[in-house]
């Protein structure tokens, strides 16, 4: 073993007890021999059991009907989520507010994000009210299995803006090997050809067929699959779903004021878009250590800190871009639909 690898070996071993997922970065996580013996499957199985235990502790945050829908499908859909006047205020305040924006290009698509930071929350009181909404808070916490404050943005999806290969987010995939939550409160209507969210119902569940599929992928993910699979976001073809006992994907072409909350360990994607449409939503994301036995203890989620996490992260990546690169480019002050 090379000396530098010996020095890193303890860190690689520690990462096994975290949400680290990149097969290509950690030779233990990516070891074909260990994964053939069941390492990856064991991490998937244990993470699933721990998420189920945490969700039982959070069950009071959601209605029995929503809990049943989530357990069956891996997502919950709430049309007309906010009362009409509250939604109109939220939409108008967010779409009319120019704020520091970041953009990422993947394939032919631009993703723009504006953080729910202190400036935006002062300018858009309806956004602050959304963060306090019990339905919003409860569903995100239950689906993610942690009583933790998510990162929240105004997100704009702008497809077909470049002559480039398709956006990799249009391929069905799981974000990681364990339960994690994303939420979309759509501020604009989403048509079938606007690149709607797509999800395979029931694909969040871990059964023997899913474990066998995960194991097979883990044997080749370090170097034999595509780049994003090697980084732990495993891709699946639609033709493989039936062998796993899964149905066809469901497309969420929905009206504005629809909330979708999903466990993105399930297979999902962004549907194809025709033309240069613009999809705008409040987008939330939360991912914790999948092996923790407790559901709470979120020191970064307290008021005064929670709303500053994204600006601080962006500032850090600006400082380190010469060394680590910069995925999210500063594009100045923009409105979500500019």
Just name the CATH architecture: Sandwich
Arithmetic mean of pLDDT: 94
Integer-rounded radius of gyration: 20 Å
Q: What is the fold named in CATH at topology level?
A: Jelly Rolls
**Dominant shape:** globular
Percent of sequence in beta strands: 15-25%
Number of strands: 11
Strand order of the largest sheet: 1-8-5-10-4-3-2-11
Q: Distance between the terminal alpha carbons, to the nearest Å?
A: 53 Å
Q: Are there runs of 5+ residues with pLDDT below 50, and where? A: none
CATH class value: Mainly Beta
Question: What does this entry look like structurally?
Answer:
By secondary structure, the protein is of the alpha+beta class. The protein has one domain: Jelly Rolls (Sandwich), CATH 2.60.120. The protein is 34% helix and 18% strand. It has twelve helices and eleven strands. The strands form two sheets. It has an eight-stranded antiparallel beta sheet, sandwiched between helices. Helix 3 packs across helix 9 and helix 5 packs across helix 7. 38% of the residues are buried. The model has no long low-confidence stretch (mean pLDDT 94).
Give structural attributes:
338 residues; alpha+beta; Jelly Rolls; eight-stranded antiparallel β-sheet; three-stranded antiparallel β-sheet; globular
TL;DR?
With 338 residues, this protein is an alpha+beta fold. It contains 12 helices and 11 strands.
Q: Can you lay out the helices and strands and say which pair or pack?
A:
Blueprint: H1 3-15, H2 32-36, H3 39-57, H4 64-73, E1 75-78, H5 84-95, E2 99-106, E3 109-115, H6 118-123, H7 125-132, H8 134-144, E4 151-158, E5 181-186, E6 197-199, H9 208-218, H10 227-230, E7 250-252, E8 259-263, E9 268-270, E10 279-286, H11 309-319, H12 321-324, E11 329-334
Antiparallel strand pairs: 1-8, 2-3, 2-11, 3-4, 4-10, 5-8, 5-10, 6-7, 6-9
Helix pairs in contact: 3-9, 5-7
């Amino acid at each position: 073993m090379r000396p530098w690898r010996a020095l890193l070996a303890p860190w690689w071993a520690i990462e096994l007890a975290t949400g680290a997922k990149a097969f290509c970065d950690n030779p233990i996580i990516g070891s074909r021999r260990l994964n053939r013996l069941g390492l990856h499957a064991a991490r998937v199985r244990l993470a699933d059991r721990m998420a189920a235990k945490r969700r039982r502790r959070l069950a009071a945050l959601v209605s029995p009907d929503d809990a049943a829908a989530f357990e069956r499908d891996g997502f919950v859909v709430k049309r007309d989520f906010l009362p009409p006047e509250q939604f109109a205020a939220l939409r108008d305040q967010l779409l009319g507010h120019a704020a520091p924006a970041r953009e990422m290009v993947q394939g032919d698509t631009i993703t723009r994000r504006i953080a729910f930071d202190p400036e935006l929350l002062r300018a858009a009181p309806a956004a602050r009210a959304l963060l306090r909404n019990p339905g919003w808070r409860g569903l995100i916490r239950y689906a993610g299995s942690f009583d933790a404050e998510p990162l929240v943005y105004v997100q704009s999806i702008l497809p077909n803006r470049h002559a480039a290969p398709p956006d990799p987010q249009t391929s069905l995939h799981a974000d990681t090997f364990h339960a994690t939550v994303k939420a979309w409160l759509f501020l604009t209507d989403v048509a079938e050809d606007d690149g709607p969210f797509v999800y395979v119902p029931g694909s969040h569940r871990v059964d023997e067929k899913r474990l066998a599929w995960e194991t097979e992928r883990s044997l080749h993910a370090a170097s034999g699959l595509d780049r994003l699979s090697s980084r732990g976001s495993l891709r699946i073809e639609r033709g493989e779903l039936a062998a796993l006992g899964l149905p066809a994907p469901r497309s969420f072409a929905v009206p504005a004021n629809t909330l979708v909350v999903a466990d993105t360990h399930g297979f999902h994607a962004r549907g194809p878009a025709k033309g240069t449409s613009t999809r705008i939503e409040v987008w939330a994301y939360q991912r914790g250590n999948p092996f923790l036995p407790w559901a709470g203890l979120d020191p970064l989620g307290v008021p005064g800190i929670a709303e500053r996490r994204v600006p601080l992260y962006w500032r850090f990546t600006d400082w380190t871009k010469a060394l680590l690169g910069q995925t999210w480019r500063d594009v100045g002050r923009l409105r979500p639909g500019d």
